[in-house]
Design a protein that fits this description.
By secondary structure, the protein is an alpha/beta fold. Homohexamer.
Length: 697
């Protein structure tokens, strides 16, 4: 049995990042104690870090520093080998690895990048896999190869490891052409029929294999003249522009990098105009050669444009530059959420996850980890497909999240706004979204607009609303999205990336209203700690609830916990525990506890109780012996918004906990609020939560 896998490649550019992301995603669903280690990394300039180490640490939030995640540099390894100190080299690697082994349940080990001597690095990988006692997963690249070239490369590599007493547990072939993938699967099965191992073929995908403008700029050491904020756009084609505009433009392909001499101002302006035109495809960027800069008059035009595509400059001539650009390979970075999502999707679709789970069977399950919780949420959201309306269709973060959700096939997304404006926002922000997979609705043009207006009028006429007022209100995307949920045309709404909390909640209170027996709309955050998930309420809505309201918040939070698979043990928090303290605030919590217990005697509720006594078993046993909640609480109810909001943010910042929310509760149908500073990941999690709520309402 093992607690590690060693990813080794048969050759350069074999797709280690894709496989690493897939394996780590899988293993983090079982344990938060997952590590990453590279025995040898390349030789980087001062201040630079290994790209793969940075990718996995930043994306997955691994509890690792860059220094801890590798053994030594290739330069240092070569020095020790040349000095006859190979054993010393191995001792350095083993020592650093053993320190990680003490901390983590599972470690993904990744081979070197084959940037120098392939023979030397391959032999080093065999040594490391053998001495670290780790089974090996061999990767190869099928790009521009025949079926037999792929299998031959795998056979040589597998035999090398096996002959050196390394256990090979599988082989993955990346970037397989669609024309040969079926034949390759058959040949692989025949060639490796005697070995018990994972065999997988992953088709090529330009969304992953295409480099970005940033990759090309770094490889060519190009100067960025304009558009530095848009360097992460993908380059699918390279087009050399050396002819007149009328001949060049018809040759432009989508997401092209246009290469032209620096003095061709006509090409520069024509390319920029084509990019902004609906009649031509997107341009990824412009690369100016020969070291020449655009004329001052051209610069003035460019500097007057907003959201510029990247314009780069190099000193070499066009021919050399084009050859160098074509040799650039894609690099994946932690902030490239869309491409990472594609990589995970490909891995999950083409690799036998059940077999992989068997290979990772020694990973220990301890509590509900953040990855496990997110995985559980995603699976539950997929069980019954929901339609989620996003009123802020013009926000780039909303569009990027929608692109990822559409790719993952979790929910049906409805974007509100004018179609041409939404498409322009996606285009200008380089959001690669397939609009055939989402629905765009312009509220005032919607077939049910008048029906919605009349419904709102009937609901609010006792408050003095007339039809004109109802028409104006329904033209607002927040009211319109809320009415879609109320009328059953959507299962839930997520808003707040642009709008205030009040703008999100007010229409919900007026249209959807609160559940029977509930007078308070409140919120919770799911605080996903390394070994457990806690529910914090209320941290976003009610500034200073009274005892009755606080009891309702506690009951609603418990019901939310139950609906997401958490058996609630509720702590009513205060600055004292039990009968030890007094004061107005303590009495408020004590009374709220009594009310909640009377309303729901089936729930385990303790209060007033201090935070440490609620979550720490030793402190809980000391301060409140015999309690069913003390030291075990997983639903924590704060006495006021000031305490709750500051506590959740402090825990999030200081522990690295994943905070999912706020999740609104108490409404008849799900509407959830985002922070205006929300990240794409926050939107993804909130939409998934809303989809699950929509399935239950």
């Amino acid at each position: 049995m093992t607690n590690s896998i060693y990813i080794s490649t048969a050759e350069p550019n074999s797709g280690k990042a894709l496989v690493a992301l897939g394996i780590l995603e899988n293993s983090l669903r079982k344990s938060s104690k997952v590590g990453f280690f590279k025995p040898v990394i390349g030789d980087y300039q001062s201040g630079k870090e290994d790209e793969h180490i940075s990718l996995v640490i930043e994306h997955f939030g691994l509890n690792l520093t860059h220094e801890e995640a590798y053994g030594l540099t290739l330069k240092k390894a070569n020095e020790l080998i040349s000095q006859g100190k190979k054993d010393e080299m191995l001792e350095i690697v083993i020592s650093k690895y053993k320190k990680l082994e003490e901390r983590f349940d599972f470690i993904l080990i990744e081979s070197s990048d084959y940037k120098n001597s392939i023979t030397l690095e391959h032999s080093l990988n065999i040594e490391f896999a053998k001495n670290l006692a780790s089974p090996v997963l061999v990767l190869t690249n099928a790009n521009n190869k025949s079926v037999h070239e792929c299998t031959d490369a795998l056979r040589v590599s597998i035999d090398d490891f096996s002959s050196n007493d390394c256990k090979v547990i599988g082989a993955v072939v990346n970037r397989v052409d669609a024309d040969i993938i079926n034949e390759l699967n058959v040949v692989l099965a025949d060639n490796f029929a005697q070995e018990e191992m994972l065999l997988a073929t992953i088709p090529g995908d330009e969304r992953i294999s295409s480099p970005t403008i940033r990759d090309i700029a770094e490889h060519l050491k190009a100067k960025v003249l304009y558009g530095e904020d848009n360097l992460d756009v993908l380059v699918d084609n390279i087009t050399i522009a050396a002819m007149q505009m009328q001949n060049f433009l018809p040759k432009v392909k989508p997401n092209s990098l246009v290469i032209t001499p620096g003095d061709r101002g006509d090409i520069v302006l024509g390319t920029l105009s084509a990019h902004r035109s609906q009649s031509y495809p997107n341009i990824a960027g412009i690369l100016l050669t020969t070291g020449l800069a655009p004329d001052e008059s051209i610069k003035r035009v460019i500097e007057g444009m907003q959201d510029m595509i990247p314009v780069l400059s190099v000193d070499h001539n066009t021919y050399i530059t084009a050859n160098d650009a074509n040799e650039v390979t894609a690099s994946m970075r932690a902030n490239d959420l869309t491409r990472i999502s594609y990589a995970k999707e490909l891995f999950a679709k083409h690799v036998d996850n059940k077999l992989l789970d068997n290979l990772l069977s020694t990973v220990k399950v301890e509590g509900m980890t953040p990855k496990m919780f997110q995985y559980m949420l995603t699976q539950r959201a997929k069980q019954k497909r929901s339609r989620i309306v996003l009123p802020e269709g013009n926000d780039p973060r909303i569009l990027e999240a929608s692109a990822i959700l559409a790719t993952q096939d979790i929910v049906d997304i409805i974007l509100l706004g004018k179609e041409e404006e939404i498409i322009d926002v996606a285009r200008n922000n380089h959001v690669n979204i397939d609009f055939s997979q989402v629905e765009i609705i312009d509220p005032v043009k919607y077939s049910k607009f008048n029906e919605y207006v009349n419904t709102l009028y009937e609901l609010r006429k006792h408050k003095g609303m007339n039809l004109d007022m109802a028409t104006d209100a329904m033209s607002d995307v927040s009211y319109f999205g809320t009415m879609m949920v109320q009328m059953g045309d959507a299962n839930g709404m997520v808003s707040g990336a642009v709008h205030t909390t009040a703008a999100t909640i007010r229409p919900a209170l007026q249209v959807i209203k609160t559940k029977p027996g509930t007078s308070v709309v409140s919120s919770v955050f799911f605080m996903s700690l390394p070994d457990r998930v806690l529910v914090y309420g209320d941290c976003a809505v009610n500034p200073n609830p009274n005892s009755e309201q606080l009891s309702e918040i506690a009951i609603s939070s418990a019901e939310t916990a139950i609906s997401f698979g958490i058996e609630p043990k509720i702590a009513m928090l205060s600055y004292s525990s039990g009968a030890s303290g007094s004061g107005e605030e303590v009495e408020k919590v004590r009374k709220a506890t009594e009310i909640a217990k009377a309303k729901r005697p089936d729930l385990k509720i303790e209060g007033p109780i201090q935070y440490d006594a609620a979550v720490d078993a030793k402190v809980g046993a000391q301060k409140m012996p015999g309690s069913d909640v003390a030291g075990q609480a997983n639903v924590l109810i704060f006495p006021d918004l000031n305490t709750g909001n500051n506590t959740y943010k402090a825990v999030q910042r200081e522990t690295g906990a994943l905070a999912i929310g706020p999740v609104l509760q108490g409404l008849n149908k799900p509407v959830n609020d985002l922070s205006r500073g929300c990240l794409v990941e926050d939107i993804l999690n909130t939409v998934i939560i809303t989809a699950i709520q929509g399935n239950q309402s």
